[in-house]
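To the wet lab folks,

You asked to see what we're planning to order before we commit. Fair enough. Below is the target structure as tokens, and below that is the sequence we designed to fit it. If anything looks off to you, flag it before the synthesis order goes out.
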């Protein structure tokens, strides 16, 4: 699925929910569905800097696409990183680098996150873009 279709689907899912308490429950449920991260990936170098909670994020290239895995020790944060993994995983590095997650503003999430969670979310996006830039640079060099 291309990233635009993924974004539209996320927006539609959130539009079906009545209010922000329901949306938070949905975000937590998304986190519960996140595949568990292996213990060997729960290391310091995989921690996303700038998150109040612990968020581990890894990335690898598979068939020219970046595949992310992630986990967190906090329920809402785990749901947020799950949403970002869903949004960016399986995309080519250029797409990740150039596509801003506009759904965050479109569903009103930006106004409903605490400043620390909003900073953490921005840090997740930044780290995913850094991984994509690194993979793009590797490809260019090889």
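Sequence we intend to order:
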């Amino acid at each position: 699925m291309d990233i635009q279709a993924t974004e539209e689907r996320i927006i539609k899912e959130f539009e079906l929910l009545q209010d922000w308490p329901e949306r938070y429950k949905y975000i937590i449920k998304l986190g519960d569905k996140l595949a568990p991260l292996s213990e060997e990936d729960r290391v310091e170098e995989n921690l996303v800097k700038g998150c109040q909670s612990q968020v581990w994020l890894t990335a690898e290239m598979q068939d020219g696409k970046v595949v992310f895995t992630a986990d967190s020790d906090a329920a809402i944060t785990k749901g947020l990183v799950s949403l970002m993994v869903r949004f960016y995983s399986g995309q080519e590095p250029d797409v990740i680098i150039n596509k801003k997650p506009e759904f965050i503003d479109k569903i009103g999430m930006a106004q409903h996150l605490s400043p620390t969670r909003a900073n953490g979310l921005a840090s997740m996006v930044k780290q995913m873009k850094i991984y994509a830039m690194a993979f793009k640079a590797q490809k260019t060099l090889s």
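Structural context that might help your review: Helices lie at 3-15, 20-32, 75-88, 93-98, 103-106, 109-112, 115-141. The CA atoms of residues 93 and 135 lie 7 Å apart.

Thanks,
Computational group
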